[in-house]
Amino acid sequence: MCGISGWIDFSTHLVNEESMIKKMTRTLLHRGPDSEGYFISKHALLGHKRLAIIDLVTGSQPMTRGELTIVYNGEVYNANELREQLKSLGHSFHTSSDTEVILMAYVEWKERCMEYLNGIFAFAVWNEQEHSLFLCRDRLGVKPLFYYELPDGLLFSSEIKGILAHPAVKTEVDAEGLAALFSLGPSRIVGHAIFKGIKEVKPAYAMIVRKDFRKSWQYWDIESKQHEHSEAETIENVRELVTNAIIRQLISDVPLSTMLSGGLDSSIITAVAARQLAKEQKTLSTYSVAFEENDQHFMQNSFQMTQDEYWIGKMQQAFQTKHRQVTLTQQELVEALEQAMRLKDMPSMADIDSSFYLFCKEMKKEHTVALSGECADEVFGGYPWFYEGKKGTLFPWLRSTKEREQLFKADWQKRLQLPQFMQSTYEEAVKGMPAFLGSKEEQERQQLFYLNNQFFMQTLLERNDRMTMGASMEVRVPFADHTIIEYVWNIPWEMKNSGGMEKGILRKAFQDILPKEVVERKKNPYPKTYHPKYTELVHQRLQQILRQKHSVLHELFEKEQLEQLLATNGQSFQIPWFGQLMAGPQLIAYFIQLHEWVEQYRINIITT
């Protein structure tokens, strides 16, 4: 995994701007601490920070072959097969890196090259002869790619901070950006950053940029088809697709591990990986995260029924993994809130982000690559809202919408129009849903799957990328393999929900290799702290911030609302205001991140 950046300008000579591309690229140091490289030409500057995973010796970037130069972030899991195919077509290779495979694929298939790739990727190819730039992002958007259009060129980067390092870009946020931040946050509208003028290449999209020509297009989408397989056939197909995806993603020239919560998804990945490594007489390392004294303060609720230790023990015993539990303190969680915000370049999931970042920092001490069970719930229907229905909300993971709006001062409520913004975002999103075959009820549920993929899954993938890369670690997500997505999309709900349990078809697909108790375990989300000490610490920090008269919190929010939030420790947000975990204490932490974001990034809020 890596960080990439670039500055293209068709009217300016850039050969003397090497210091600027270095400045942009070095904001991405955490994404690639192993090495850096640059390409300098008249109209193009490209930068690369490398986290070496495959071909540690000869896989450096930028990589140039003839008139083409590539910078790339990601992993192509079918690189070996593609290399052989390209060799048969007459291409020769000088490295064993997947970077060269992508570059030769571009030579052979031009703007259709990404259709041949199985993996996670964001890359840019500069054609020095034609003075053209090709940008592309993987099908599910696992790897990020942002850009900013100049009058006669373009800036791009793996993270927003890389673009903000350029003097042409101002840290401005307008009313539309604020409305998106506060009505949809921590999720974002795909293709849009919160900062004015900064956009992202959408998942499954590519772009061509030339002096007088710019084009963007979607190269992949889910296709609705009649599902013709029996349940037994479907179970077998799901098992094969998931197993193949996991095995493909075990490739690495550095130590590899899995994240293990004892839930269904991480247990499937751990089981397949452990069995595969055992064939090579290797032992799989597994990791879990916990919080100090959580066993004393854990509160069962409809989202989180149990803690993880018992089921982790069952898996560790069954597959003889080398397991380590990382236990985080409340103080660490609070201190890492600012770093988590900086990695995201915006306020986001508070301690859900900071805990994941700290977890990965500990894993990185021994392992650079890990596999995670992320995305299975979006693909197979594991979240409570698939069973509860919408209950009047457009995005069921966005709760307390009215309470959110009431936090604002009256004039900001009028400017932002949060309910209307959410409604228009929803209506625009569902327009893009592929036609679905089935009854009205089935179409409504399928719409929920589509919205999960477009918003909730993107939020978790963004969290996964920023927090793991913030720890200079690569975490892969086998359930986001597009071959799985394509197949499972068309499985009827009653089959997905086989046996009356969430992700029933997935449970049946792997029930013979997992401990029975793990197969039957009710879904639990990523863990969070329930310790009152954490609430006390974020309460104290927000109180300190509110003593600062210049804080943006005073400009945007009603004083009485903030005081009530503190006085009750967010009791009005005991139902999570986002997803399954973010309740009152996380909202207080979110306000801390918001304040620090505006201060540290020197955000200029445009009110007109």
From TrEMBL:
It catalyses: L-aspartate + L-glutamine + ATP + H2O = L-asparagine + L-glutamate + AMP + diphosphate + H(+). The active site is at C2 (for gatase activity). GO terms for molecular function: asparagine synthase (glutamine-hydrolyzing) activity; ATP binding. ATP binds at V289, S372, G373. CDD domains: Asn_synthase_B_C (cd01991), AsnB (cd00712). Keywords: Amino-acid biosynthesis, Asparagine biosynthesis, ATP-binding, Glutamine amidotransferase, Nucleotide-binding. The record marks E374 as: Important for beta-aspartyl-AMP intermediate formation. Transmembrane segments: none annotated. Pfam families: Asn_synthase, GATase_7. Belongs to the asparagine synthetase family. Its EC number is 6.3.5.4. This is asparagine synthase (glutamine-hydrolyzing). Pathway: Amino-acid biosynthesis; L-asparagine biosynthesis; L-asparagine from L-aspartate (L-Gln route): step 1/1. PANTHER family: ASPARAGINE SYNTHETASE, ASPARAGINE SYNTHETASE (GLUTAMINE-HYDROLYZING). L-glutamine binds at D98. The keyword tRNA processing does not apply. Residues 2-212 form the Glutamine amidotransferase type-2 domain. The keyword Nucleotide-binding applies. One of its GO terms (biological process) is asparagine biosynthetic process.
